[in-house]
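ok so i was messing around last nite and threw this chain in just to see what happens. nothing serious, just curious
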Amino acid sequence: QMWCVPGGAVRFNHCDGVVQLCKGSPPEPGQAAVQAHTPAALSLPAQQPLPAQVVPSQPSTDLSFDCCEQEGVWYTQGEHVGVCQQTGGDYTKCGWLQSKNNWKLAMKEPPQRVEAFLHAHKVYP
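result:
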């Protein structure tokens, strides 16, 4: 789901909890996101590289267009809530999709981050 706000756009994946921001006008659908370079991500030890396109979770007020280096590019600013246990597997291989309670627990923080960001930009979905 995507919302346009003053200065750009934010999108949220309801299945895996990924949050992405784009400064300026969002690109055409289908563009892959790049990893945002946040201070928290840059301070991690070099021997623990981040998976592609993922930045550690931060407090709910952390979403900012400051992490978007270029306009018109999606930047991932939140982790997936889980990793599928089998390549090419279906939903039964994703722990957070095993039950409604698992999904609700795993998906608690990402929507709160998006909601705080939207409210800060006076958008009330």
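not much to say yet. Residues 38-60 have pLDDT under 50 and may be disordered.
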